[in-house]
Amino acid sequence: MRKSVRKHGRTMTSIKVTESFTMCEMFERFMWFKQSEGLAPRTIEEYRIHFQWLLDYLEEDLSREQMTLDVFLGWADFMLNDKGLQPTTVNIRVRTMRAFLRWCYLENLIDTPIHERFKPIKTAEDTIEALSVSEIKTLLNAFDESTFVGFRDKVMVMVLLDSMVRISELLSMKRSNVDFKAGVIKLEAMNTKTRKAREVPLSSKTMKLLKEYFIESEDFGEDLLFLTYDGREMVSNTWRTRLHEVANLTGIIFGYIRVSSKDQNIDRQLNEMLKLGINERDIFIDKESGKNFNRPQ
User: Fold this and answer.
1) Whole-model pTM?
2) Counting C-beta atoms within 10 Å of the first and last residue's C-beta, which end of the chain has fewer, N or C?
3) Structural domain of 268
4) pLDDT at 2 over 50
5) DSSP 74-135
């Protein structure tokens, strides 16, 4: 047996092997990955909607070689200049696709880091004022407490103002999670965006209203806290519409946006408010974690 190494022996070279998928196939793998991360169904659905808008523009699937920076820059230009979309709307879609492209690059599905140069459009940041105390009082007084729906909506707004939770979290609250003795409501992990359970304290006035609401709604026999007039689960968009209808009666049209940190982007939520015709001056933006209750006034 030879113990020495051949002077002119063959050397082994490592060859990077990349599977070749179409863009649609890459996106399906990306969606599987995002679902495995535990993203909320609504977020997953928004990813699919944004990707479909890209496909509508392209009118065909792309090979990995066809996925170039120019393609995505052209799409952004089309949305902004040909379709006349607001920069905030364009940026929502751009951010979704950037996340997709970044994942594709890190997974070696594409060779070029397109995401590094495919960036959101720069937009001016306006100072947005919150509703005044008198405006909040006017809104609360507008609810017809002689009806179940009117009283329910007032209680919901009081809980929302006290807890600063998202509307989706508000509608997921359960009767069994209300602790009247401690004055808190527990939010279950599965119903929060961060997938972390937490307790939110409420004022004594709100807890008093909640006790009255418990009595009004106990005949439904459901554990969900806030229900429709006939005892069914509420839909967030329906309640938002209802809230704006009441606000219109007072001459106040307002919106509420919350993200958990100052670094998170509010474009998607802000764009939805603007589409409803809400003035930016009447959009309340809260950039604090839901676990903190000592907020700037």
Assistant:
1) 0.50
2) N
3) 133-287
4) no
5) HHHHIIIIIS---HHHHHHHHHHHHHHHHHHHHTTSSSS-GGGT--PPP-PPPP-PPPPHHH
